[in-house]
Amino acid sequence: MRRARPLLGTFVEIEANGLADPELERAIAHAFEAIERVHRLMSFHDPQSDISRLNRHAVSTPVVVDPWTMKVLRKARCLYEATDGLFDCVVGYEAIERGLLPSLGLERVECGTFSAVEFVSDRTIRLSARIAIDFGGIAKGFAVDRAIAVLRSYDVREALVNAGGDMRVMGEAPQPVFIRCPGDERHLVQAGLLRNAAIATSAASATLRKGKASTGSLASASDRAAYSVIAPTCLLADAMTKVLVQLGDPHAGCFAEFGVMAFVTSPAAIKGRAA
Question: In DSSP terms, which residues pair with 173 in a beta bridge?
Fold first, then answer.
């Protein structure tokens, strides 16, 4: 059974089998509900989301957030520290300045990094600087993971959840994975087979860099490669693609440390395989 809905700024597709139709339909519907919950909690565009409330109020008073939001915040902090700041969700002001996100009344006052996020309690966050958090580089992967968790709770054993290229598969049957490079929509290249794992792909031109040598800069628009990471979870795959874009080296030590596999697909590689 396959279903699709517009969510997370893209189309989310869920494919699952192994249950009778009424029960399988219910499982897929609840998986979509989990994705919708992530969207409500973590959308930069929604002024009532946890992220928007943090950005507006947490610098002056602690803000209580949903347990799912807290989980992603803690994961983001771990990734920020482990990558020496290369993965940094504090890119909201840079995205606003480039017209990629709505301002929602936010005015840039000072620069900061994810180190400004303070964990006051299990549910409460305070910001030590006026920063703008954007979960655009991690929430989609988390939403895919939550959908898989819901399907598993229904005893679904084979499933695929694909949110605009952030994909996770569950089951014994390997699923083929195809990569399309930015700027070259005509050709696909099969990157391999995926089983009980996740993959995410990012384009350099869509990634805001926060590295030491390139704080707040966008990658070159002429970079038409696709940067992909295979990982045990889609959250990790989604986040680590942003690190790969900045490092440019799929053999960098941080990928092995996280137990993920990184690779870069160029238009030339796609054309060469298609020839």
Answer: none
* pLDDT for residue 211: 40
CA atoms of 89 and 239, how far apart (whole Å): 10
CB atoms within 10 A of CB 27: 24
Q: Can you tell me the distance from the alpha carbon of 48 to that of 262, in angstroms, rounded to the nearest whole number? A: 36
Rounding to the nearest 10 degrees, give the CA dihedral for residues 241, 258, 122, 132.
-30
Annotate 52-87 with b (16+ C-beta within 10 A) or e (fewer): bbbbbebbeebbebbebbbebbebbbebbeebebbb
The CA-atom distances, in angstroms, between 158 and each of 59, 170, 175 are 44, 5, 11
- In the chain, where are the structural domains located? 45-127, 174-275
Instruction: Give the class (CATH, top level) of 45-127.
Output: mainly alpha
Q: Are strands 124-127 and 63-64 parallel, antiparallel or unpaired?
A: antiparallel
Q: What is the pLDDT of residues 211-231, one digit of tens each?
A: 432 323 334 445 678 899 999
Cβ–Cβ < 8 Å for 89, 117:
no
| Buried/exposed code over 114-140 (b: 16+ C-beta within 10 A; e: otherwise) | bebbeeeeeeebbbeebbbbbbbbbbb
Distance CA 71, CA 69 (A): 5
Q: Tokens for 225?
A: 């490669």
- Quick: pLDDT tens for 98-110: 888 888 888 776 6
| β-strand partners of 168 | 161, 198
Q: CB of 102 within 8 A of CB of 92?
A: no
Q: Cα(166)–Cα(164) distance, rounded to whole angstroms?
A: 6
